[in-house]
Amino acid sequence: MCNGIIYYYTPMTENEHQTVSLVKNLKTTETLSPIASSLSSETPSHTIIFPQMQSDAAPNSRPLLLFFSWFRAQPRSVAKYRDLYLDRGMDVLLIQSSVMHFLWPRWGLNYGLEILNILEEPPFTGRLILVHASSIGGYTFTQLLTHIARQPKQYTGLAQRVKGHIYDSLVVGSLDHMATGLGKTLVPRLEGFIKTTAMLYFWLFKSQTADLYESSIQVFYNSPVTSPALFYFSENDAMCSPAVLEKLMDFWRQRGVSVGSMKWKKSTHAAHLRCHPEEYVSTLQHFLNSLSFPSPKSSIELCGKI
Asked: What domain of life (predicted)?
């Protein structure tokens, strides 16, 4: 799955979920097709219009889930998360990231602004938002937060629309954790070489990489989104320092943010749902039930989704 933005919704006149790919340089959408169809690999653009999404489109009152997926997430894996929210009566905007958005943060910031522009256009204008970010997806969401923090007058309304945010397998800690993540996700058999190369790259381009990462970390710590948050993580995740993450959660609590978490001694990065399905879903259900989302469905169905 390449980077791109895909919108899933349930038409009012059908039981079958539908999908729209937001594709760069197109002025009309693709023909609506079932979710099972192949996902677009094109780069997204906010210049899309939706001529076919009229009477059968989802109402603007339906909450919107922003799912920031992990790097190289496969459609079948993403579908398990997507369907949890579709079955709860939410629409889903799947946001996929490229490793280049991370390696050259200014491109990541441009992508973040593109996403913000999409959220200010129909059919997303004014809708309540829930964020679910996994692994590198947390970094991509932070690029949105950076723009919101820089231009609070322009984006205050959007920040207030976010009624909850969920973080799964955040890559937090030192540059070493970031370099480890690159090695494990790009070419695992060359993990050591890629990690060493990444550390050299961070040193050579410090002002364009490491310094901007540090700025992003500060934005995340002082996030303009202060709605309830939920964190999933494990003690054996080489890409995450539990001590640093728990320090972050404590800092947010001191800011008045309601923070919940689920921690496992042993699990797999960005695969907690697969490793611990019942605990994962029950924790998510409890969190969603605590939010003030108008939803036609009161519970998440676990059966058949894992």
From this structure: Eukaryota
Q: pLDDT tens-digit profile of 94-120?
A: 999 999 999 999 999 999 999 999 999
The domain total for the chain is 1
Backbone angles phi, psi at 123, to 5 degrees: -95, 25
Please give the residue range of the domain that contains residue 69.
Answer: 4-289
User: Does residue 213 belong to any structural domain of this protein?
Assistant: yes
Q: Are 43 and 97 in contact (CB under 8 A)?
A: no
pLDDT digits (tens, 9 = 90+) for 2-13: 458 999 987 654
Within 8 A by CB and 6+ apart from 194, the residues are: 179, 182, 183, 186, 187
- Return the exposure string of 212-244: e unless at least 16 CB atoms fall within 10 Å of the residue's CB, then b: bbeebeebbeebbbbbbbbbbbbeebebbbeee
Q: Is residue 75 part of a domain?
A: yes
Residue 182: predicted pLDDT? 86
CATH code for the domain in which residue 183 is found? 3.40.50.1820
**Residue 304 maps to a domain:** no
Cα 103 to the center of its chain, rounded Å? 18
User: Long-range contacts made by residues 52-56, C-beta under 8 angstroms, separation at least 24?
Assistant: 53/20, 53/29, 53/123, 55/12, 55/13, 56/11, 56/12, 56/13, 56/14
The kind and range of the H/E element at 105 are helix 105-119
